[in-house]
Amino acid sequence: MDPSSLAYQEEVARACGLALDKRILAFASEPPPSEHPTDLRSHWNRPLRPPVNPAARRKVATQPERVLDAPGLVDDYYLNLLDWSPNNTLAIVLGRTVYLWFAETGDVVEFCSVGADPSTSTATPTAGSPGDSVTSVSWTQDGAYLAVGTNEGDVQIWDVEQSKKVRSMPGHQARVGVLGWRDHLLSSGCRDGSIHHHDVRVANHRVAELTSHTSEVCGLKWRGDGAALASGGNDNLVHIWDARSSTPKFTKSEHNAAVKALDWAPWQLNLLATGGGTHDRHIHFWNSTTGAKLSSIDTGSQVTSLIWSRDYREILSAHGFPDNQLTLWSYPSLGKVVDLTGHDARVLHTAVSPDGMVVATAAGDECLKFWRVWERKKVDKSREADAHTSRPADKAAVSDDGLSSAFERKLKIR
Amino acid sequence: MLAGTTNKFRLTLKGSTDIVTEFFEYGLNSILYQRGLYAPEDFKSFKKYGLHLLVSTDEKVQTYLKTLLSQVERWLMASAISKLVLVIISKDTRETVERWQFDVQLEKDPKNQDASITSRGLKPEKAIHDEIQAVLRQITASVSFLPILDEPCTFNVLAYTDKNAEIPPDWKDSDNAHLLPENAQHVRLRGFGTGVHRVESLVAYRSYE
Q1: How close, in Å, is residue B37 to chain A by CA atoms?
Q2: Are the beta carbons of B159 and A27 separated by less than 8 Å?
Q3: I want to staple B75 with a disulfide (CB 3.0 to 4.6 A). Which of A235, A395, B9, B81 is the partner?
Q4: Which residue of B has its CA nearest to A21?
Q5: Is A115 left (phi over 0), alpha (psi -120 to 50) or beta?
Q6: For A315-349, what is each residue's pLDDT tens digit?
């Protein structure tokens, strides 16, 4: 290179702000690509801590209020052996016997048994064939009668005050794992997948037969207004029925395991929550008007039951392995409010107290625990008065087999 | 050394190189985090220089930076590097969007360090850390004035070296200094000195009228 062109080059370099004795090197390899696209705006807009709302700040007692022994509680997921009546009486089935625990006094009585057992005292009224056992219990809406489903397929109604069996409504071919009342209509779900509606006032009690489930029915819940019924079975299906129809209005196959946990939201008629068993672990929320799935939670554990709060926008789920906990979720945000642990085996059954504050849980560890999950909100006087007047306008009327023909009023099921 | 000066120490070239390299590591990681080049979930907070600094947990990014900085360290030892530049480039247009420049100068000639222990070479470690802390704080704070990167971006690292510096194969002569257009905004940030090296920092970004 001749001196003049060298000088020229230097001149150009200086004009460009480059130094000739320097080299600009670039690291040759491309930086690894970003795995996730990022938008800084959303990052910076994110609040540092979630907004404080009073519901989230609410303290929930993480210890049970009371613990009772429940020796001989059958560890079977498909049964429903616990129910809490509006009269504040808890019915729990231990083996073949139904016990009543009176929440106000704390007294326990042996209420009734099915199947003969020479060792049990004769003082307890007994019904049914020997070797039978109780597989489900359910209180009427006024708490005066207890429906009892048995292993041999019988559905019985017991009068609480007189401690005697009022009637027996056979018809199922296998055990009756779940019962649900709607006024004078008692629905029973059977191991063979059938659901029967029994009108308890009439002799010919079986008024409808729903046969869409192909496997044991373990979840059954009437909606608060009685216009719809949700059922879940071991065929992993959830059916939503119109009360007037014997074909399901919607069939939901999203669950991958038996569906025992079902509950209708008390404050939103068409909101249904369903929870699946061991292989599913999900809670799904449904709109029963459109059949649409609204949202889901993967809980990481089998869902054995679900309870909506009456006053709070919250739902409580009971679980099995690994933590055997109760989890309280807020709705619709689906944030976890609190985990309540304490059982050593899966929570089998839950029941909520008539005031909607305390939840009783019976677990495979043969313990019955009472949790004060919800506190009473500040009482709204007008609503309170409302609730009292509109209360049991129509009590479930139950009659003897012999007298049933006297009842003219029949529930029409189309 | 006198007893009274034990809280000060004279850095060797090696010691100073380590400090500068470490600063680059945290500095580059901070920029990658602050400018959203990688998702915030992929960073973990470390306490360093009295600050919580975010360092990428993505192994590929870590390896990339380690490889790059090990060469920078060699150049620092050879006193052959004068600038380290991180350029943020638009993925689609390959245009330079932002340019973070770190100028490295020697504060004193390491070859003559035995000749005299000047007071310039003496600096307590804490003072160095405080200066570095101030620079990193400014990098963090710069997101408040830098424009949001609207397009997907990637980055590249440039090194300005001596003409006859040793060049490993993974570094190539750049045909492009990734300079920003005339109307770009330049913001000079703080610098720090170790007594051996002086590092000044500067960020340039495209300005939008």
Answers
A1: 7
A2: yes
A3: B81
A4: B163
A5: left
A6: 999 999 888 999 999 888 888 888 999 899 999 99
State phi, psi for A263 to the nearest 5 degrees: -160, 140
Establish, for the pair of chains A and B, how many residue pairs have beta carbons separated by less than 8 Å: 94
Interface pTM, i.e. ipTM:
0.77
Domains along the sequence of chain B with CATH: 2-205 (3.30.900.10)
A27 → chain B, closest CA residue: B171
Q: What is the value of pTM for the model shown?
A: 0.55
Domains, chain A = 66-115+131-372 (2.130.10.10)
pLDDT digits (tens, 9 = 90+) for B138-191: 998 888 888 888 788 889 898 988 888 888 888 888 777 777 777 788 889 888
The answer to whether A76 touches A84, Cβ cutoff 8 Å, is no
Residues B160, B96: Cα–Cα separation, whole Å: 17
Phi, psi dihedrals of residue A389, rounded to the nearest 5°: -70, -35
- Considering only residues A274 and B117, tell me which one the structure prediction assigns the higher pLDDT: A274
Q: Give how far the C-alpha of residue B206 lies from the chain's centroid of Cα atoms, to the nearest Å.
A: 20
pLDDT at A46 over 70: no
Q: Does B92 touch chain A (CB under 8 A)?
A: no
Please list every residue in chain B whose beta carbon sits closer than 8 Å to the beta carbon of residue A20.
Answer: 163
B174 and A40 within 8 Å at the Cβ level: the answer is no
Answer whether B105 touches A (CB < 8 Å): no
For residue A24, list chain B residues with Cβ-Cβ distance below 8 A.
Answer: 158-160, 173-174, 177
Residue of A nearest to B150 (CA): A39
Contact of B61 with chain A, judged by CB distance below 8 Å, is answered with yes
Q: Give the pLDDT score at B92.
A: 84
How far is residue A20's CA from residue A9's CA, in Å, rounded to a whole number? 9
Closest CB to B64 among A32, A38, A39: A32
Whether B33 shows a pLDDT value over 80: the answer reads: yes
pLDDT of residue A240: 94
> Phi and psi at residue A54, in whole multiples of 5°?
-60, -30
- CB crowding A83-119: b at 16 or more within 10 Å, else e: bbbbeebbbbbbbbbbbbbebeeeeeebbbbbbebee
Does the distance separating the beta carbons of A25 and B173 come in below 8 Å?
yes
Residue A158's DSSP bridge partners are A146, A165
Kindly give the pairing relationship between strand A108-114 and strand A303-308: unpaired
Which of the two residues, A55 and B17, has the higher pLDDT score?
Answer: B17
- CA-nearest of B64, B56, B68 to B29 is B56
B201 or A381: which carries more pLDDT confidence?
Answer: B201
Q: What is the band of A44 on the pLDDT scale with cuts at 50, 70, 90?
A: low
Q: Do A40 and B157 touch (CB under 8 A)?
A: no
